[in-house]
TrEMBL record:
Species assigned in the record: Chromohalobacter japonicus
Protein name: Sel1 repeat family protein
Gene3D superfamilies: Tetratricopeptide repeat domain
Domain of life of the native organism: Bacteria
SUPFAM superfamilies assigned to the protein according to its UniProt record, in alphabetical order: HCP-like
């Protein structure tokens, strides 16, 4: 029964993702409600990508403080499960703080570093900037800034679809 449930959740997630990007009925409130309901069901079932996406949506666009708190919890669940986008968002939550999570620069650095090391270009750029300008409680360190900037560049090339061989030089 667990496999059937897992398959159903994966299928619902794919359907929600396709509905989100479908060009038809772009302004339909019904399509939006259905899509968000599917993402919510998947997130509540523990689907990591759904936790990341739906959590991000709730945190940034939730109508109530409860929605925003649930969104932050979902983002952190996905981040702990290894979702690179959620790890970057966790870094941003700790960098800027919010009602549920106080501003904690050391935790922001931890999450940004995890995301950057997993290939998230914006996280690597943020780490490079932090070392260049002594942000997030880090000292100015041009060598580390250059390392993070190189990692960001490799991540951007990888996202652009460049062959891996070109990433080595």
């Amino acid at each position: 029964m667990q496999q059937v449930s897992s398959l159903r959740i994966r299928l619902e997630y794919r359907l929600a993702a396709q509905l989100l990007h479908a060009r038809w009925m772009t302004r339909s409130p019904g399509k939006h409600r259905l899509t968000m309901r599917l993402f919510q069901r998947c997130a509540e079932a523990g689907h990591t990508a759904a936790l990341s996406f739906y959590g991000h949506m709730l945190f940034h666009r939730g109508n109530s403080p409860q929605d925003k708190a649930k969104g932050a919890r979902y983002v952190f669940q996905a981040a702990y499960a290894g979702d690179v986008h959620a790890q970057y968002q966790a870094g941003r939550i700790y960098e800027f703080g919010c009602a549920q999570y106080a501003r904690r620069e050391e935790k922001a650095v931890t999450w940004y570093a995890r995301a950057a090391e997993a290939g998230h270009g914006l996280a690597a750029e943020r780490m490079a900037e932090a070392y260049r300008h002594a942000h997030l409680g880090l000292p100015v360190d041009s060598r580390r800034a250059a390392q993070w900037a190189a990692l960001a560049e490799r991540a951007q090339r990888s996202e652009a679809g460049e062959p891996i061989a070109s990433l080595t030089h």
